[in-house]
Structures are given as C-alpha cells and as structure tokens.
Design a protein that fits this description.
It holds the Pfam family Glyoxalase. It comes from Actinoplanes palleronii. The chain is α/β, with parallel strands linked by helices and about 130 residues long. Helix content is about 15%, strand content about 40%. The protein has 2 helices and 8 strands, in the order βαββββαβββ. A 4-stranded mixed β-sheet has the order 1-4-3-2, covered by helices on one side. It is globular.
C-alpha cells in the first residue's frame, strides 16, 4: 500500500464554525466545501482535516449522530511560546495554557466552537547523551 495523503474526518454540529476556527487560528485553508461538509489543508501539515455535519446522509447510519468527542488533534510546532502569544492576541481562549510534562513535552490546548480540541506541542531539547 502507498499512502498519498492523510486526512482526519470529524463529525460536528456546525461545520462552518470549525472550518473558520481552523482557518483563522491554525492557518488551514478551506479547499472544498458543500452543505454539511468542509475539507481544509495546509501544505506543511501532512494532515488535512474534514468536518462533516452530524446527521449527514453520507455517513453510515450508526455514525450519523456521533459527534467528535474525546479526540485531540495534535500539531508539533517550533515556538510554542510564540504560538500561545499569537493565539491570545487573536482572542482565542486557551483550554490549557503551556504545560510541561516530565517526559519533555510542552503543550497547550485550544478548543473550537464545536468542542474539537487542538494540541500544539513542542518537544524540549534533550541533553547530549540522553
């Protein structure tokens, strides 16, 4: 198998709200949209995101009413402090401000209007030989 690209589809109640949040605050570009559907991407992300409106007929019956919950979409970034400052300046409420984990992960969380959680991650530099 050869994978040519990757995408994550999330079911939400308000597709335009999630699409706008991703475009306004995380630099994604809406590449395709229709009633109840939007596909967004970034040339540098390696992962496209799609939003589908809950109840959409194209979804299998057992998944039509299941909203995205419990998933966290994570992006590794170069300067987490700068990203936190930028998001705050844009008026984004931080779900979790920068936090450092003992295993070397620095992260922050933001949540879009549909409850989709995005994690921005920066890995701490490790000492040589560790």
């Amino acid at each position: 198998m050869r994978i040519r690209s990757s995408a994550l589809a999330l079911t939400v109640d308000d597709v335009p709200a999630s699409s706008k949040f991703l475009a306004d605050h995380l630099g994604y570009v809406e590449r395709m949209a229709a009633d109840g559907f939007a596909s967004l991407g970034r040339d540098d992300a390696g992962l496209d995101l799609m939003f589908m409106r809950r109840g959409l007929e194209v979804l299998p019956p057992h998944l039509r009413e299941v909203a995205a919950a419990g998933a966290i979409v994570a992006f590794v970034v170069d300067d987490l402090d700068a990203e936190q400052d930028r998001l705050r300046a844009e008026g984004v409420e931080l779900t979790l401000p920068i936090r450092e984990e003992p295993w070397g992960e620095r992260l922050l969380l933001v949540t879009d209007p549909n409850g989709v959680v995005y994690e921005l991650v920066e890995w701490a530099e490790t000492e040589p030989g560790r």
